[in-house]
Design a protein that fits this description.
alpha/beta; Rossmann fold; Four Helix Bundle (Hemerythrin (Met), subunit A); 5-stranded parallel β-sheet; globular; binds adenosine monophosphate; binds zinc ion
């Protein structure tokens, strides 16, 4: 698998820390509002990466945070906590806001067929971990207390800007919009790890800490959650390109200072979705949400299809005209697939040929649009029989997740799941020398027209018509 790595600015061969296993972290949403379809584009990108790795045979463990505290409006250390903004806007508690928008977020992901990571953890549930990290950073001289807040001292690192292309002078505070100077900082590029209420008295959520009552900065939550649940070595970490600086830059600084070694090997960033006016925003113009697309009569998967048709490292401009086109192409594609005649035995060589091509395209830095071309080529190929095509489409859709196969085909998938579970049960019985049970499972399947075959490569099956 080849993947572009923001850290080295190169497409590299992906080699996980532990063979065959991938630990992956996705920066989760700030749950102060609905996600816009730009945010969703990033989560579709991560979903494709996650599913591709699984399709290639890796065992993936993925974690994602839910930001329910500490993300200030500037993305840096000035401005107000976005959750506080929402709390005042909606006259609710932070936890009510977080609960409501977290549910809305997962509903959106579900509609886009994005699988939920194994680990999902709200920032507010890991305060102990942040305190542990910050205490060590202070002890080791990487962090300091000033004006009631704890800051990370970036001058203690040789290469704080390792993830960005920028020079230090381009990054100074004041150059970036909306970031105010903070007299408490030794260096204006230092960043907050912990805020005490000495600066933000009205913050609703506060926890006791060795530095007084307060709340964590935004960046520390991702380091804390990632290290707590995925361990000291992370394979892939990502988000949208806006996360590169300051968020991910700060995550690397504090994590590596805390761990004393390199933390994450591959950094994966999605380019933005733009609207016709430029950057997508929750406050400007039409607030584009998944529900809005549905209200206008679109299938959310038409949007997923649109996202997959372009490369994740290219900006994509959203227009309703384009979505309309993708909706109509998706409908045609589904129709075509559902009219395929179920005939012939699976042709192994054809299956392998197309499956390999599909994997190759995805392994080439997730070239989803070329992977879709493999699907179109397959559908046009008159040399491939119906059952082979349907099997391939079913398998491709494990990654594409576009509902390409109709409901009754899904029944077949359920049957396959059932058969595989039975085979597993039978193998277990054979291992335990319980041949009576093994035979009864074989007969049970035979009654359902499923013939089990034991081969040197393992157990396979055939549906007898
Ligand atoms: P937030 O909820 O603001 O923390 O953002 C959630 C995710 O969406 C982050 O990974 C952002 O980098 C990403 N994101 C924000 N805006 C866009 C956009 N216009 N297009 C793609 N991804 C975005
Ligand atoms: Zn993060």
């Amino acid at each position: 698998m080849k993947l572009y790595n923001t850290l080295t600015r190169k497409i590299e061969e992906f080699i996980p820390y532990e063979e065959g296993k991938v630990k992956m972290y996705t920066c989760g949403p700030t749950v102060y509002h609905y996600a816009h379809i730009g945010n969703i584009r990033s989560y579709i990108g991560h979903d494709i990466l996650d599913k591709t790795l699984r399709y290639l045979g890796y065992e993936v463990t993925r974690a994602m945070n839910i930001t329910d505290v500490g993300h200030l409006t500037s993305d840096s250390d000035s401005g107000e906590d976005k959750m506080e903004v929402a709390r005042k806007r909606e006259h609710k508690t932070s936890m009510e806001i977080a609960d409501f928008y977290t549910k809305a977020f997962f509903k959106d992901l579900d509609k886009l067929h994005c699988r939920t990571p194994e680990i999902v953890s709200p920032a507010t549930e890991n305060i102990d971990m942040y305190i542990k990290i910050i205490e060590k950073l202070i002890k080791d001289g990487y962090a300091y207390l000033s004006g009631g807040n704890v800051y990370f001292d970036i001058s203690k690192l040789d290469d704080y800007y390792v993830l960005t292309n920028h020079k230090e002078d381009q990054m100074v505070v004041g150059v970036r919009e909306g970031v105010e100077e903070d007299d408490n900082k030794r260096n204006q590029a230092d960043f907050a790890l912990w805020f005490t209420t000495s600066k933000f008295e009205n913050h609703e959520l506060q926890w006791d800490s060795p530095w007084g009552k307060g709340y964590p900065g935004w960046h520390i939550e991702c380091s804390g959650i990632s290290i707590k649940y995925l361990g000291e070595h992370l394979d892939i970490h990502g988000g949208g390109v806006d996360n590169i600086f300051p968020h991910h830059t700060n995550e690397i600084a504090q994590s590596e200072a805390y761990l004393g070694h390199k933390w994450c090997n591959y950094w994966f960033h999605n380019e933005h979705l733009l609207d016709e006016t430029g950057k997508m925003s929750k406050s400007r113009g039409e607030f584009l949400t998944v529900s809005l697309l549905e209200e206008k009569g679109y299938d959310p998967l038409a949007y997923r299809f649109m996202v997959l048709s372009s490369h994740y490292r290219k900006q994509l401009v959203f227009t309703y005209e384009a979505l309309e086109q993708f909706q109509s192409t998706l409908n045609k594609l589904r129709n075509k697939i559902n009219n395929i005649k179920k005939d012939g035995e699976i042709e192994e060589n054809k299956y392998n040929e197309y499956n390999e091509k599909f994997k190759e395209e995805l392994s080439n830095d997730l070239n989803t649009s070329n992977a879709l071309t493999v699907l179109y080529d397959l559908l046009k190929d008159t040399e491939v029989n119906g059952n082979t095509k349907l099997r391939l489409v079913t398998d491709f859709d494990k990654v594409l997740s576009l509902d390409l196969i109709k409901e009754d085909e899904k029944l077949d998938k359920d049957l396959e799941k059932y058969i595989l579970a039975k085979i597993e049960e039978r193998n277990e019985a054979k291992k335990n020398k319980d041949y009576l049970l093994a035979d009864s499972i074989r007969n049970e399947l035979l009654e359902k027209n499923v013939m089990i075959k034991d081969t040197r490569e393992g157990t396979t099956y055939e549906i007898i018509k």
